[in-house]
Design brief:
Blueprint lengths: L3 E4 L3 H13 L3 E7 L6 H5 L2 E6 L10 H11 L3 E3 L9 H9 L3 E2 L4 H8 L1 H11 L14 H11 L3 E9 L2 E6 L5 H16 L4 E5 L5 E9 L5 E13 L2 E7 L6 H17 L4 E9 L5 E7 L6 H8 L3 H9 L14 E8 L1 E2 L5 E2 L2 E2 L2 E3 L6 E5 L6 E2 L6 E9 L2 H14 L1 E3 L5 H7 L3 H5 L15
Parallel strand pairs: 1-2, 1-4, 2-3, 4-5
Antiparallel strand pairs: 6-7, 6-8, 9-10, 9-12, 10-11, 11-14, 12-13, 14-21, 15-16, 17-20, 18-22, 19-21
This protein binds ligand MV4.
Length: 446
C-alpha cells in the first residue's frame, strides 16, 4: 500500500480524499495556490506545498510544480480528484514515468475515451448500443450532409474532442446543416485545438443516466448501478439521485452489463462512469465515459455502503476486486450548493461567508471545504458544498432533503439553496417525472 499520497486538487474533493487516506493510515500532502492558504485541505493534510499564484493554469494545472512537490515530499502516488488534471493523459504519463503512481486509469484509457468518435467506434465493436450515427469523424462537408440525410433529421453534430456541450449543435433540417457544421467545427477548434466532428441522430428529451464501474489491474470489472443526472442547467448538474425513478430493475441489469462490457473492451483500470442517454421508450445509448471519480460519487457510496475513494486507492495499489456487481439498498439524493445567485441567472457570488450552519442528523451528509469566515474565491468552480441525504425510500430522502435545506444557513454570499428548496417541492420532481429538459421550463422567482 502507498505510504504517502499527494492530492493534486483543492476544495471539497481534496478534503474528501484526505479523509479516506487518514482512515487507511496513509500520509497526505496538499498542494495549494496562494488564494487557498486558509483552505481546509491545507489544514488537514499532513504536509502542504504552495504551488503558485491563484490562477489555475499557474497552480492546480501546473504539472511541473506538482511533480516537484511530490518529489520533495517523497509521495509515492498522486490523486488528481476531478477536474484540473484528472483526465489529462500527459499528466498521468509523467507521473508514472517519475515513479509516482497516478491514482486513476492508464494514460491510454484516458485517450481512448477522451476522443468521442474513437470511443463511439470502440463501443460499436464491443456491442454496446450507441445512437445511430456516423462510424467516425467526417472531414468532408458534402459527405457529412449525405450522412445527415441518411441518419435522418433532426441530428446532433458533435466535436470528437468535445464534452460539456461545447462544439455541439442540434440541426433540424438540411438547409441549416452547413451553418451549424461550420460553427461547431470552429468552436471546437478554438476550444480544444481540434475541429473534427461526427454526427448522431438527435434523441429527444433524454434522461441522463450514468453507471458507476470499477475495474482492477487483472481485468475484473464490476458495476455499482446508476445515478440519474438529468437535473442539469447549461450542462451543469445541480441534483443527482440513485436509484433513478425512471429505471426498472430489468433496465438496471441491462445497462449495468453494457457498462461493464464498455470498460472491459478497453481493459479499464480504476473507477469510472459510463454515461448513457435513455429515451422515453427506455432505449439506452452510450454517450461518453468519464475516466475519473465524479462530483456525485457520494450518492452511490450511500446506497451501497462503499468508499469509492478507498476503492480507487486499493485498485491503484494492485488490490484485486471480486467482480460482483452492486445494487442499491437505499435511496440517496445530492444537491450541489454553489455560490451563485439563482435569482440573477445563476451568476457567481464569491465573497466572505459570514455565517455557516450546516445541517446534520440521521441520513444527512455534507461534503464541504467551507466554514464561517471562509472566503469563496472567484478563480475556481463555484461549488461550495454537497448536501447528500440517504433513506429507505425516495419519499423519505426528499423529506430529509427538504428538512436539511431548511437547516442550512449560509450568509454573506448567495447560494443555490433557494433553487433546491423549490425543486424539492415541485410536484413533477416529487413524482419522479423529469428529463434533461426539466430545468428549461422551471421558473424560480422571488
Ligand atoms: C445528445 C443529446 C441528444 N441526442 N446526443 C449534452 C452534452 C454531451 N455530453 C452530450 N449531450 C447531449 N447529447 C444525441 N444524439 C442531448 C444531449 C444533451 C444533454 C445530455 C445529457 C444531459 C443534459 C443534456 C442537455 C442538453 C443536451
Amino acid at each position: 500500500m502507498f505510504k504517502k499520497i499527494l492530492i493534486a486538487n483543492r476544495g471539497e474533493i481534496a478534503l474528501r480524499i484526505i479523509r479516506t487516506c487518514k482512515e487507511m493510515g496513509i500520509k497526505t500532502v496538499a498542494v495549494y495556490s496562494t488564494a487557498d492558504e486558509n483552505s481546509l485541505h491545507v489544514r488537514f493534510a499532513d504536509e502542504a506545498v504552495c504551488i503558485g499564484p491563484p490562477e489555475s493554469n499557474k497552480s492546480y494545472l501546473n504539472v511541473h510544480q506538482i511533480i516537484a512537490a511530490a518529489e520533495v515530499t517523497n509521495a509515492d502516488a498522486i490523486h488528481p480528484g476531478y477536474g484540473f488534471l484528472a483526465e489529462n493523459s500527459r499528466f498521468a504519463k509523467i507521473c508514472n514515468e517519475a515513479g509516482i503512481k497516478f491514482i486513476g486509469p492508464q494514460p491510454e484509457h484516458i485517450d481512448q475515451m477522451g476522443d468521442k468518435a474513437t470511443a463511439r467506434k470502440t463501443m460499436i465493436e464491443a456491442g454496446v448500443p450507441v445512437v445511430p450515427g456516423t462510424d467516425g469523424i467526417i472531414k468532408d462537408i458534402e459527405v457529412a450532409k449525405k450522412e445527415a440525410q441518411r441518419i435522418g433529421y433532426p441530428v446532433m453534430v458533435k466535436a470528437t474532442a468535445g464534452g460539456g456541450g461545447k462544439g455541439m449543435r442540434l440541426v433540424w433540417a438540411a438547409e441549416e446543416f452547413e451553418k451549424n457544421w461550420n460553427n461547431a467545427s470552429n468552436e471546437a477548434a478554438s476550444a480544444f485545438g481540434n475541429g473534427d466532428l461526427y454526427i448522431e441522430k438527435f434523441v429527444e428529451e433524454p434522461h441522463h443516466i450514468e453507471i458507476q464501474i470499477a475495474g482492477d489491474q487483472y481485468g475484473k470489472v464490476c458495476h455499482l448501478s446508476e445515478r440519474d443526472c438529468s437535473i442539469q442547467r447549461r450542462h451543469q448538474k445541480l441534483v443527482e439521485e440513485t436509484p433513478s425513478p425512471f429505471i426498472t430493475d430489468e433496465l438496471r441489469q441491462k445497462m449495468g452489463d453494457a457498462a461493464v462490457k464498455a470498460a472491459q473492451a478497453i481493459n479499464y483500470e480504476g473507477v469510472g462512469t459510463v454515461e448513457f442517454l435513455v429515451d422515453k421508450n427506455r432505449n439506452f445509448f452510450f454517450m461518453e465515459m468519464n475516466t475519473r471519480i465524479q462530483v456525485e460519487h457520494p450518492i452511490t457510496e450511500e446506497v451501497i455502503d462503499f468508499d469509492l475513494i478507498k476503492e480507487q486507492i486499493k485498485i491503484a495499489a494492485g488490490v484485486s476486486i471480486s467482480g460482483k456487481n452492486y445494487f442499491p439498498n437505499a435511496h440517496s439524493i445530492e444537491c450541489r450548493i454553489n455560490a451563485e445567485d439563482v435569482f440573477n441567472n445563476f451568476r457567481p457570488s464569491p465573497g466572505l461567508i459570514t455565517t455557516w450552519h450546516s445541517p446534520g442528523g440521521h441520513g444527512v451528509r455534507v461534503d464541504t471545504h467551507a466554514y464561517a469566515g471562509y472566503k469563496i474565491q472567484p478563480y475556481y468552480d463555484s461549488m461550495i458544498a454537497k448536501l447528500i441525504t440517504v433513506a429507505q425510500t425516495r419519499e423519505e430522502a426528499i423529506s430529509k432533503m427538504q428538512r436539511a435545506l431548511d437547516e442550512f444557513v449560509i450568509e454573506g454570499i448567495h447560494t443555490t439553496i433557494p433553487f433546491h428548496k423549490k425543486l424539492m417541492n415541485d410536484p413533477d420532481f416529487i413524482k419522479g417525472e423529469y428529463t434533461t429538459k426539466f430545468l428549461e421550463n422551471f421558473k424560480i422567482e422571488e
